[in-house]
Amino acid sequence: MNPSRRPRRSPSQNVVKSNQADTPSVETARMRRERRTHRSGALSGGSTRSKGTSRAKPVSRARTARAKSLGNQPPVYMRGGMASLPVQPRKLGTPPKRRYNVALNVPGAELHLPALPVFRLSWRTVSGLLTALMLGLVIYLWTSPNYRIYMVEVTGLQRLTTNDINTVAGLSGQPIFAVDPQQVRKDLQQAFPDMKNISVKVSLPARVQIKAQERQPVISWIQDGREQWIDMEGNAFPPRGDAGKLIRVEAMSNPPVIMKASPMDLSFLKPEMVGVIIRMAMKAPKNTPLLFDSTHGLGWKDAFNCQVYFGMDILDMDQKLLVYQALAARLQKDGIQPDLISVEYLRAPYYRVEQ
User: In DSSP terms, which residues pair with 291 in a beta bridge?
Assistant: First the structure.
């Protein structure tokens, strides 16, 4: 057999070879194009260098190595023109979608439901939603008529009325959340000194309860044409309403000074002095006002319009009354009309005649 002659191939081998030649792979075609481009670039580069106008760009080693590696890979065959279908990447910032497939009763069949986007809430979104929710809740509570005050409940009043309290408190039409119990208590104490033990209770939805006690006056103190009431503790406050029958005291001068703990302190007389006035009124003639003088103490005017003083010590009040009665009878017998009789000192009584 002549070695120079090539062996003949069967027709089936020629058909297979022709089929393989007719269906070149995509990578093989791309490599051929790159080789042609490389050759043409080399030729043009040589001619260009000969002319001296420019210099050809050298082919990188990475590109050459990549071409060699692609040439060693097996051919890849594509079906149905899949290579021509573009693959669109998902845009940044768009949420991914979740697909749901429902299996049907038919074997191998399933129902594709529309894809639903997947929502992922960040902490900023949650914080913003909570802030908006709280803001809406505050606006609703502040403007809702269910949380507005229309009337204040007051208990423990005798001379004052509920309208007096509502006028001073100024809570009508206000939201319940704007009420300051301490401020309401302070305003009421300043407007009504005759109130004590004031308590303010606030409850939802719109309820305000005020409990207080009114001071019970026992003395009506009149000085320089001004009247004020005094209770058993010696606190003075303006008269209000009808307090019944009080001990009337007409003062010629100020009582002993009392050191006050605060501007809100209403102390005017010592409690001991209040007790002396009450016992003195029991000794005075009926419906006769008492007199007070810082020099002579307490007394009253007798039937002859004479000022009678007994001082501030009432321990010997019965003996002082006997001395006064004896002295007044003696002066009346002698035809003397005194202007003042003082029995402040039991062993040294005296009288004064107006000149």
Answer: 250, 299
The domain segmentation of the chain, as residue ranges, is 148-214, 217-352
46 in Cβ contact with 79 (< 8 Å): no
Q: Which H or E element spans position 155?
A: strand 153-155
Q: First vs last Cα of the chain: how many Å apart?
A: 185
Residue pLDDT, tens place only, 78-96: 444 444 445 556 566 565 6
Q: Are 231 and 243 in contact (CB under 8 A)?
A: no
Q: pTM (2 decimals)?
A: 0.60
Q: Which CATH class is domain 217-352?
A: alpha beta
CATH T-level topology, domain 148-214: Ubiquitin-like (UB roll) (3.10.20)
For residues 154 and 210, what is the distance between their CA atoms, to the nearest angstrom?
5
Give which of 305, 308, 239, 314 is closest to 279, Cα–Cα: 314
Handedness of CA 121, 126, 128, 133 (dihedral sign): positive
Residue among 222, 216, 301 at smallest CA distance from 254: 222
